[in-house]
Amino acid sequence: MEKKESKRISLVDGHAHLEGLNDLTESIQEAKAAGVCGVIAVGMDIESNQKVLKIARENKGYIYPALGYHPWEIKEEEVEKNLSFIRNHVEECIALGEIGLDYKIKVKKELQRKVFGDLLDIALESNKPTIIHCRYSHRRAFEMVKERNITRAVFHWYSGPVNLLDKILSMEYLISATPALVYSPPHQDAIKKAPLERILLETDTPVLYQGRESRPKDVMVTLQEAARLKGLKPSIVAEQTTKNASRYFGIPFQS
After folding, report:
1. pLDDT tens readout for residues 160-181
2. Torsion angles phi and psi, residue 201, rounded to 5
């Protein structure tokens, strides 16, 4: 009798900043070899959005573009130019991201909220899911998403209050897990609490984790840590989170 082959694990990296990588081709090859079946490439401003669209066109069926305007990149004199670009190219992307609020930076909170609100309106009008940045602004970001009746929102790298997480989950929104699960107690607490059906896996490439720059292949680190925290086999976590990504982004990723 032949030995039955074990099923190969396939994963989606739900959030990566690919446009700045000098080793993009190599990183994509390594990700494919590691079992990554798709990558969501997120933008931050016009320049990165243009690059994201180009990378996605050159890697059709593997890299999927999300167009964003990150709060770190907001400059009052450039707001309308950035919003116009997203409006004009929204049909070319699968989501709006990375967008949101960041109350640790110097950009005026009022301006951040105005831009975020406009971006949520674009998402609503175009029926696109959203990828939300909410550092030190978890509650306000959630309130704005809820107020606008956004139906698909993923709270990127969620490390906020656990009691707010209950509200996020009650709206059937998702949270994402990163390799920071290795060392971040607040992030660990969120992933422990959230049902597996509400979790996406990601890397936030090329973010540094404990001094090491990440790449899409490192979503396998996220998988191993999420499986450990949930007390589940990695294959189960991989299958469900890939299904979650497919449902959320409307893409038939192969788990």
Report:
1. 999 999 999 999 999 999 999 9
2. -105, 145
